[in-house]
């Protein structure tokens, strides 16, 4: 019985064999496989058309049915660039075995809006979060150094804060419980330095720092990670490896050392739940558990519907048995805020 993850690999391999327009079509279908909400084999068993699924047209449907009728031998080793990704169907199956786990989730700590490269307004993201009964979300648009993603500067960040404050007032007036947190995904250079004035960051509820450059270097990047974690202005390191499914492998480091340093500083490493990223991945989550490092879950949503990506992170953390107390999104909002405060106080004492 082929799983969706195995089908994704078959599709990706087929893309490499095809030429012309079929190659990108198979490649796209491989990516889409991670988002299929149900197992393809179940659809086949129920006599449903596979074209219900994203990325599958009639031609690819035929190919998939051939594979299911006669499963090909999958080569033992999936290339590293496609390894260690969970499919939504598998993730949901795993989460269904322990419903109490997902119920602990109180919010989502990475998402983008029209202020940078997202498609939704803050209000639309907040509405999507209310539908999920979240207690909080962090709005983490890109910072000014990431021009390609429409990063915002200190002035815009302040204006955004005013918009968020208004939304929070309206929510509490109407009896809602969602708090929209002011945050940012600050671009970090390879020396771990941010691109925003520390004073403007201090006004935020939370700061993520992420690398978006020099992500293909093959040399060990441990020093880069240690520097980023020691950056006094961030509390969470976003999509740590910088990997992307079938596109970029991500960075190398002495991970036990990186996680140990995060633990010492009481900072969190993120599971970026975007299906193509899933970064931290399962292998690194094992180290996070051993090192008792805090984990933050962020969908990196660029559209309101993408808040559902949180399931990838919840499933990965559950699979690797990360203790609930290590997940910052399981904290009540006051605990979350005091965690940030503690880190800020500690950094201020050192300055
Ligand atoms: Zn990012």
Helix proportion range = 40-55%
Overall pLDDT level: 96
Order of helix and strand elements from N to C terminus: HHHHHHEHEHEEHEHEHEHEHH
Query: Any idea what the shape is?
Result: globular
- Helices, by number, come to 14
Write up this protein:
There is one protein chain. This protein is α/β, with parallel strands linked by helices and 351 residues long. Helices cover 43% and strands 9% of the residues. The protein is built from 14 helices and 8 strands. The chain has helices spanning 4-17, 22-33, 40-45, 58-69, 88-96, 99-103, 122-131, 154-173, 198-202, 222-230, 255-265, 282-291, 310-319, 333-350, and strands at 107-108, 136-139, 179-182, 185-188, 208-211, 236-237, 268-272, 294-298. The chain has a 5-stranded parallel β-sheet, with helices on one face. A 3-stranded parallel β-sheet has the order 1-2-3. Helix 10 links the parallel strand 5 (208-211) and strand 6 (236-237). Helix 10 (222-230) runs parallel beside helix 11. The longest helix has 20 residues, at 154-173. The model has no long low-confidence stretch (mean pLDDT 96). Residues 185, 210, 212, 238-239 line the site of zinc ion.
